[in-house]
Amino acid sequence: MGSRKRTYDAEFREGAVRSVTETGKPIPEVAEEFGVHPETLHSWVSRAKRNGSPSSDTPRARPFSRDPEPSAPRRPDARRRRWTPP
Fold first, then answer.
1. d(CA 65, CA 71)
2. Residue 77 dihedral angles phi and psi, to the nearest 5°
3. How far apart (Å, rounded) are the C-alpha atoms in residues 2 and 21?
4. How would you class 34 by CB atoms within 10 Å of its CB: exposed for 0-12, middle for 13-18, buried for 19 or more?
5. What is the pLDDT of residues 9-61, one digit of tens each?
6. Can you tell me the distance from the alpha carbon of 2 to that of 82, in angstroms, rounded to the nearest whole number?
7. Rg of the chain over CA atoms, in angstroms?
8. What values do phi and psi take at 82, rounded to 5?
9. Secondary structure of 25-74 in HEC code, one letter for each residue
């Protein structure tokens, strides 16, 4: 009763994700069209939003800044009722 794990190439994943994001169709509908499980397509869409690609598990690199903007002073931690160090 075991099922074989299927692998999908990057082009197929990107096409399925593009179909969800560009058409606005619900994930279950697109999943049925592409013949994949809705949870699989949901994970591809989530990964694409987070990392920029449905095939990549590594986040997009952020641009490097030598002189970061000064951060605002921290607020007191509500649970501890004390100031956290900057």
1. 14
2. -75, 120
3. 32
4. middle
5. 989 999 999 999 999 999 999 999 999 999 999 999 999 988 877 766 555 55
6. 54
7. 20
8. -150, 165
9. CCHHHHHHHHCCCHHHHHHHHHHHHHHCCCCCCCCCCCCCCCCCCCCCCC
Length reported for the chain? 86
* Pair 30, 19: CB distance under 8 Å: yes
Neighbours of 16 (CB within 10 A): 24
What gap in Å lies between CA 49 and CA 32, rounded to an integer? 21
Tokens of 48: 């694409």
Return the amino acid letter for 75: R
Has this prediction a pTM greater than 0.85?
no
Token pair of 7, please?
């692998």
